[in-house]
Amino acid sequence: MFNKKKQPAIRSLISDGTQINGPIVFTDGLRVDGTVVGTIQGSEERSSILVISETASVTGEVFADHVIINGTVKGPVHARLMLELQPRAKIEGDIYYTALEMHQGAIIDGRLHPITVDLEVKPTLKLAANN
Predict the structure, then answer these.
(1) By the 8 A CB rule, do 77 and 58 touch?
(2) Does the N terminus or the C terminus of the chain have fewer Cβ atoms within 10 A?
(3) How far apart are CA 56 and CA 65, in angstroms?
């Protein structure tokens, strides 16, 4: 339901050993392997994907359509469509999500806040047997 659209390409990288201070705004995709102190904001006009790898550390608020975390985040996480928490994910802060996938080993120290989908808009379902 949430992953029907093609994911944007990851066009930017903050490599391991790099630290960035201050807000980051990106379009399409961003992979963080280093350290970020400040807000990370994906574009609201275009679909965005943010990958926070196992070597990454983020201190600040995170916003994107699709967020994949396998590192450490200290601050709230806002995943407009999908949040994937990999086994080494550690989050200290509240999480806002529409859909959540959490692997064994991921740790959350905060509250989970599901984003409700408008129930008036019902998706069209097609049965595989109806051809």
Answers:
(1) no
(2) C
(3) 19
Cα separation, 65 vs 82, in Å, equals 7
Residue 70 CA to residue 68 CA, distance in Å, equals: 7
Q: Give the model confidence (pLDDT) of 28-52 as tens digits.
A: 999 999 999 999 999 988 899 999 9
26 vs 76, 105, 124, CA distance in Å? 18, 29, 32
Tokens of 3: 């992953």
For residue 40, the one-letter residue type is: I
Alpha-carbon gap, residue 59 to 72, rounded angstroms: 8
Please say whether the beta carbons of 109 and 91 come within 8 A.
Answer: yes
Three-state DSSP class for residue 109: strand
Q: What pLDDT is attached to residue 128?
A: 59
Q: What is the pLDDT of residues 61-107, one digit of tens each?
A: 999 999 999 999 999 999 999 999 999 999 999 999 999 999 999 99
Distance of CA 2 to the CA centre of its chain: 13
Nearest CA to 22 out of 49, 54, 61 is that of: 61
Asked if residues 113 and 95 have their Cβ atoms less than 8 Å apart, the reply is: yes
